[in-house]
C-alpha cells in the first residue's frame, strides 16, 4: 500500500512539473473553494445564532422566550444546539432540551431570511415534554408537574392540570376558561411542513380528567398542516390514569378540513401493552397484565375504536382464569367488552360488560359452566361440576366492588356420598361473602340453609334443614354444627378407611390368586414327579419279568 502511495505522489509531481501553469489554476480553484466553504460554515454558524435570536424575538407561535447555550450550523441548513430553554411570559419553564437540532433552507441561513414556519426538520433529545389538551384535543404546552420525577406507580391518576381550577366544570365552562387563558402555544394557521423526531424523551399528558407520564418516547412525526400528519409513536412504561408496560401508535390524522373549520379525522392503530387492571380500579390486588389492540377512527375530538383485549391469566378471589380474550369497543371514555371467553377450573367462561375510564365505574356479566369443584376448592374428595352466573359492579371507588350471582351443579360426590345437585345464591361486598337459599340434593334427603356468611374469614351459619324424601324434617342450629362436623369427619375417615380396606382386600385377593397359581404349579410338579416314579417302577418291573430262573 505504501509503495502504491509513493507511486501516486511521484506521478503527481511529474504532472505538475510537465504542466505547472495548469496545476496552479487547479490549486487556486481548490483553495478558493476551501476558503469559501470555511467562510460559509463560519457565516452559517454566526448567522444561525443571529437569526435564532432575531426570530425568537419576532415569533408569536411560542409564548415567552427561547434561549440556547450553544448553536452550530452548516451551510447545508443543519443547525444543532445544546441546552434549549423555553420560558413563558409568567416565568414558568415550559420546555428544557439538553440537545437537539433542526434543519432549514440553506439559503435562509446564508441570507438571514429565516422564519419559524420554514423549519423542515426538528429533533429533540432527552427532553421532558408536557402537553395539555382541551376537549377538542387542541394542543398546548405547559410546565411539568412534580409527577414527572416520581416512580410511575406513584403518579397521580387524576391531578388538577396546571392551568385548570380545582372544581369540575362542564364542557362549556372549560371552553370559556380556555378562551380566557393565555396559551403557551398559538398556531394561527401558518403552513408547516416538517418532520419532528423525539429521541429518548419523557412525555406528560393532561386531557380532561386524565393524566399520563410516559417514558422512553421515540417518535417520528411527518407534518404537512395543509394535508395530514403521519405518526409513528413508541413509548415505554407509563403511569397515571393507567399503568402499563408500553404503547405504540401508528397512523395518520387528516388535516385537510381544518381550513374549513372542520375537526381533524384520524386513522390509527393503537397497541397498549401490559396494562395493570388495579390501576384502572379493578380491585386492589389484580395485577395480571392486560393488552389492547384497537383500530381508532372518527374525529380527533371524538375518536372511536374497535379491537381485541387479551390476558394470559386473570386471578380474582376464588377464581383463576386463563386465555382470556374478547372484543372491545371504545367511545367517549366508555370501553364495552363483548364476547369475552376464558378457561376456568377445567370449565369455560363467557362474559361481557362496560367500563368508563373517567368515573372508573363498571359492570360485568359472566356465565361459567363445567367448573371442577375439586380444583377450585383444592379438595379431591369433593367432585361436582358447577355452573355459575355472576355480576360484578362498581360505582368507581376502589373498594366499592359488589359481586353476586347464582350457582347450580350436575351430579357428583363428596367422598362416597353421591350428590344429585347443588343450588344457591351468593353475594360478596367488602370481604363479606354470603350464601342464600343453598340446597344440596342427595339421593334420599335435601340439605338446605338460608343463612351462611363468611366475614373476614369467620364463618357464621344459620339453621340447617335436612328433609327426607318421605317428608321427615330435621333442623340443626349452629351449636349442633360441631357434632355434624365430627360426624362428617367420621364419615370421611370411614370412607378413607373403607378405601384402604378395599385396597388391602384387593391386594389380598391378588396374593390369594398368586398363591393358588403357585399351589397349582406345585401340584402339577408333584403329579409330574409321581408319573416319573411310576414310569421307573414299570421299567424295573418289566426288567424283573424278563429274568429267567434255573430250576
Comma- or semicolon-separated keywords:
6 helices; alpha+beta; membrane; 30-stranded mixed beta sheet
**Proportion in β-strands:** 35-45%
Regarding quaternary structure, what we see is: single chain
Coarse shape: elongated
Give the count of helical stretches: 6
Give the total of beta strands: 30
Q: Please state the average pLDDT score.
A: 77
Low-confidence stretches at least 5 residues in length (pLDDT < 50)? Answer: 22-40, 161-167, 543-551
Helix share, percent: 25-40%
Q: Which structural class do the helices and strands define?
A: alpha+beta
Distance from first to last alpha carbon: 135 Å
Tell me the radius of gyration: 43 Å
Report the biggest beta sheet as strand number plus sense, adding barrel if it closes.
30 strands, mixed
Describe the structure.
- With 551 residues, the protein is an alpha+beta fold.
- Helix content is 26%, strand content 44%.
- It has 6 helices and 30 strands.
- The protein has a 30-stranded mixed β-sheet that branches.
- Helix 1 (2-18) packs across helix 2.
- The longest helix has 65 residues, at 481-545.
- Keywords: Membrane, Transmembrane, Transmembrane helix.
- Residues 143-174, 495-527 are annotated as: Disordered.
- Residues 143-152, 165-174, 515-527 have a biased composition (Basic and acidic residues).
- It comes from Veillonella absiana.
